Amino acid sequence: MALTLYVDTARWRAHQKSVIDQFPGIIPVCKGNGYGFGHERLAEEVNRSGADMLAVGTTYEAARMKDWFGGDLLVLTPFRRGEEPVPLPDRVIRSVSSVDGVHALVGARVVIECMSSMKRHGIGEHELAQLHSAIEDVRLEGFALHLPLDRTDGSDAVEEVIGWMDRLRAARLPLHTMFVSHMRAEELARLQQQFPQTRFRARIGTRLWLGDHEATQYRGAVLDVTRVSKGDRFGYRQQRAASDGWLVVVAGGTSHGVGLEAPKAMHGVMPRAKGVARAGLATVNRNLSPFVWAGKQRWFAEPPHMQVSILFVPADAQEPQVGDELVAHLRHTTTQYDRLVDR
Predict the structure, then answer these.
(1) What pLDDT does 274 receive?
(2) pLDDT of 33 above 70
(3) Environment class of residue 163 by beta-carbon count within 10 Å: exposed (0-12), middle (13-18) or buried (19+)?
(4) Alpha-carbon 169 to chain mean position
(5) DSSP summary character for residue 147
(6) Which helix (H) or strand (E) holds 114?
(7) If DSSP codes are grouped into helix, strand and coil, which group holds residue 309?
(8) Cα distance between residue 216 and residue 50, in whole Å
(9) DSSP string covering 153-208, please?
(10) Most exposed residue of 29, 113, 134, 244, measured as fewest CB within 10 angstroms of its CB?
(11) CA distance 37 to 161
(12) In degrees rounded to 5, what are phi and psi of residue 252?
């Protein structure tokens, strides 16, 4: 009995191909928990695609992925002087976001990150003059821009990249390759047309692996079903049942990521109102679970346990049976499955 990730493999791979076809020279990204699929599985998919480079989040991920992927590995987390050394092959490329970092990586293959409107990390315009001597001692693979997902100010991603291209060109720095994140295919085509001597390479993870929501589905198996009457006590905290129904024990707990939720950026009155309502219900121990039964998301009977969750299903719904599987609406990047099944 397990929390299972079911994958419609043909549909999933068809979506991957559609993204790859839109972005020539694409660099697939595999970081964190492998977007819910795991690093080894995504390495298998990248090998199938024929990509020559794979981006990972950290040097520790690169150390694992080097045994599963034989091409170049681009580490997205910028190098910092004094970081723990991790033995890596020469085909690993380090991202660098400071002049000091470039100086410290003598002989290494590097991609220099420029400060975008994300304002997360990157070389600033005022530092470009200092790069001339620094890049003489490294093997420069290109420059990179990590762009924001939303542009609420109406700005244009293409214009932002063009601005950096102009700055780099004015500083007489090499522009043979520019790595970009979070750009649409048509935007990339506009850039390639305007700068035919530069190769633009899109680093893509979420859109590639998770862009077709219907290709994957999590399901938790029902392990036990216990009938309760209104007022019966149950669980670790011995709460009382609010009404007649069933306590349903389903595979999937905190060790799987059930009950974990990343903060959301809310825009508009309605999403904010729903957020306030959910917070209010939580104060009286009413928390909606990700599990669906009989067409409805069901409430947690109590906070999820380490490997299972206990749900409350009211008496007016159909009784679940041991062995049934409940669809679970879970976030791929925070979920660890017990098994993956290709369909």
Answers:
(1) 42
(2) yes
(3) middle
(4) 33
(5) -
(6) strand 109-114
(7) strand
(8) 23
(9) T---HHHHHHHHHHHHHHTT---SEEEEES--HHHHHHHHHH-TTSEEEEEESHHH
(10) 244
(11) 32
(12) 125, 105
Is residue 164 within 8 Å of residue 127, measured between CB atoms? no
Calpha distance 239→141 (Å, rounded) = 60
d(CA 79, CA 101): 6
Q: 260 pLDDT band (50/70/90 cuts)? A: confident
Residue 52: CB atoms within 10 Å: 11
Structure tokens at 23: 């972005």
Alpha helices in 77-126 (DSSP H): 99-104
Cβ neighbours for 305, distance < 8 A, ≥ 6 positions apart: 236, 253, 254
Determine the Cα–Cα distance for residues 37 and 335; give it in Å rounded to an integer: 9
Q: Do 155 and 117 form a contact (C-beta atoms < 8 A)?
A: yes
Cβ-contact 93, 141 below 8 angstroms? yes
Whether residue 140 is predicted with pLDDT greater than 60 in this model: the reply is yes
What single DSSP character describes residue 268?
A: S
